[in-house]
């Protein structure tokens, strides 16, 4: 339901029976039910955004930047409340949720600064003419965002789309609908009416939005949903931006400290309970250090399980998927050195799990598990590990731990992914962007390049007319082809 001055009472009443029910991931207790938008509400949101888009596109970039700064201030003021909703709906610890919201504030501020300096290019042509490009907004952008870092990811797309002059319809994940609505209520007042709308719902609402006559579809989420959105965009002509699933490999060379490598692996596999797009999903470790590495990673997992630092998965459906991958590996001969079983008690907890003896035939190595699972495959040489790391249909990110510059350069050249991380599983400079490959998506995500994704380019050629004293026009040779 749009969180602006739109009359959605009828839509809410019609959708109330098919609302989204959210349970606390820690206790299993039902928290609330949030109504879903119906087809009429979706159509109304598109109409309102379409009406608001021209004036927002005509606003000066500095004016749009000022609005984004106001939105960032409002988000910062509401951080504690939003972090509490994030913890309630997804199970993410409040301090981690606050860190994500802090990143979102910084992202909005970044795009507020970039908006006035987002520029075109001059083109070399006739010396008496001017050729240049102008960036223009597409129009109406639909943003479909995930639950695993819901505020930070959403604000990356929101900031870039609004900075470039698009009107925005945001559909947050159905796994955190109350948080998504609250985020809309915080941000929308910073912009003119109709420029930023929020619509709640699940896959049906996402399909309705994707099939609407809008200009941009930006999606962060599963590869299956991304493929459906890409097909919808192909039919409507919308520009599609996707960051989708990943099965990110970690390649551990023989010349690194195994304890340090295990710490990196644990950070990559267990942070946010493995529910990060670029989590470590599969590990290839050189045989020479495999025993020490595996023992150290087992100890890291055991420590996290003992101190209760592994938060619950978002819901029971996600836990069922994670455990199905683990059970498949165990049935095919893998060993659970730590974890690997569904715990007793309420909620959707799953322990940090270390699996040895894994092969690429196992789902836990071939698919995106999206849980706190570290599957290990031992390889005889760096080349063997790199070959395995390059396999699969995803292409989001990969990490290489090595002191061998030749191996590092070889991996950078060979890995078919959008981001290669060397000797650090997470991190990177502010403003970084990448282009996912394969089933992991397409188009730049984040950074200054995302402004280009939300813009169309117009080429302008201006020639001087013949002056009153110049009776001959330019020669044909000077004409632009």
Automatic annotation (TrEMBL):
UniProt keyword annotation of 4Fe-4S present: no
Protein name: Succinate-semialdehyde dehydrogenase
Domain called Aldehyde dehydrogenase: residue spans: 20-460
Lineage, opening ranks: Bacteria, Bacillati, Actinomycetota, Actinomycetes, Micrococcales
Keyword terms: Oxidoreductase
Organism of derivation: Pseudarthrobacter enclensis
PANTHER family: ALDEHYDE DEHYDROGENASE-RELATED (PTHR11699)
Record bears the keyword Oxidoreductase: yes
GO molecular function: oxidoreductase activity, acting on the aldehyde or oxo group of donors, NAD or NADP as acceptor
